[in-house]
Design goal:
13 helices; six-stranded mixed beta sheet
Length: about 350
Amino acid sequence: MPLAFEKPMQNLKAFKDQLSQPRKVVILTHFKPDADALGSSLGLARYLKKKGHAVTVITPSDYPDFIAWMPGNEEVVIFQKDKPERCAKLVAEAEVIFCLDFSSLNRINELGGMVREAGAKKVLIDHHLEPEHFADFEQWDGTAASTAELVYQLIVELDDQALVDGPMADCLYAGIMTDTGGFRHSNTNHKVFQIASDLVARGANPYKVSKLIYETNSLERLRLMGYVLWEKLQVLPEYKTAYIALTADELKRFGSQTGDTEGLVNFGLSIKGIKLSVIISDRRENIKLSLRSLGDFSVNEMARAHFQGGGHRNAAGGQTNLTLEQTVKKFLDLLPQYKDQLLAD
């Protein structure tokens, strides 16, 4: 069955014309990229290079080692590690800038202002709610499971499926696999399986990708996980809520690296009867929150209203400039006003 898309790019012909000759292209993704952010970026970069474009992927920060295996990773420019002047020059000289897996320019920190001022044509490819609409072209669908899915959709719309090879397919498959929680989350539908099947047919290796992402842990990460489950996981059955609060000293004690806390929030949500799970971490520069929920309870709305964040209905992130203790208190003080929603069937 051929793939059918509910939200194709509206001005596809103009977009195709824009890329009809070799361009200087920059691809940007959000702070602390996950597998969908990096996989969609590197997958798109490989496709555009095959079309003859000069492409640079820039990330605002570092990212976990368990996604650094992706083809093209060695060419990624990291804003925090590489000279900022180099990134500014690349953005200023770009003719086309792709913004992947974020809906607002503030998600890329200092790079956001550079992109806003750049003379390049901007392209948004994203699935997060309430996009800023800063781009000239949008491949946006809030119902899509991942940005990698939308990158593949765009390649299909451009009739370039034949250019998808094994390394590109691995990158895109990784994004889809992780943003669906290994095809377990409620955003997993028939279209997701169709695209994943297409990618496997074009060379993606599900065993390799899942092994590298889910089963390549450091000893320190496993010990952190055990500590969190035994000492830090708090359960509030009266609100169907679980939460974890980690201090900067605790993260340092276990040698926590970027990505080591990823997925810990899902343990709380796996407890029978729990509807909301949150992990609150002291990252020294600020306090980070990761929120997950089941059913109709919107952590996107909670994050937007109270924690300078957002995302999806059942998965969102946020931050505060308070202390860890103040942030935990703020979160706990909010629960009574959400009690009816949390207790609803």
